[in-house]
Design brief:
Blueprint: H1 20-40, H2 51-67, H3 72-92, H4 99-103, H5 105-115, H6 120-131, H7 136-155
Helix pairs in contact: 1-2, 1-6, 2-7, 3-5, 3-7, 5-6
Length: 159
């Protein structure tokens, strides 16, 4: 093993030098950057996003979105659009039939982010993911990503 595993240190809410709000903001920005960097580094499409990394990222990102006061209905609108495309893909069987609609999810995310600031981090992550969707397998990984994010957002008490 080339790299030592570092234990996760508990946050220190009582630290007067660093208000917990700033810690959370920094951590949140870090998770967005970390996910986007991971996705951007995938050379062979989103299907190569390791599932354990995806779940770990979603486990941090879902609560972050809740903290940003992103409402579940904003996330669900995106999931509903993705699920419609999933149904279309199952019916048509050819990814090229839905590829245009997949790419057009990006402007919808940009619009949602412009209307609600809390949707911006979701838009950044999902736009990076959409850029890596070029096949049915990539699209399936996109579905797994958004479903995982919603699950962790809801588990955190997202409404």
């Amino acid at each position: 093993m080339s790299e030592a595993i570092k234990p996760k240190l508990p946050s220190s809410p009582g630290n007067p030098k660093q208000p917990s709000h700033q810690t959370n903001v920094g951590k949140t920005q870090n998770i967005v950057e970390e996910i986007v960097k991971t996705i951007d580094g995938l050379k062979d499409g989103l299907q190569k996003y390791p599932i354990r990394d995806l779940v770990n990222h979603a486990a941090e990102f879902g609560p972050y979105l809740k903290q940003q006061r992103l409402e579940t209905n904003q996330v669900r609108k995106f999931l509903d659009a993705v699920n419609r495309l999933k149904a279309d893909l199952a019916e048509k069987g050819d990814f090229s039939e839905i590829e245009t609609e997949v790419v057009l999810l990006k402007p919808k995310l940009a619009y949602a982010a412009a209307r609600q600031r809390a949707a911006k981090p979701l838009g950044e992550v999902m736009s990076a993911a959409i850029d890596k969707v070029h096949s049915k397998e990539d699209f399936e990984r996109l579905v797994q990503l958004i479903e995982s994010i919603i699950a962790y957002h809801k588990a955190e008490g997202g409404k």
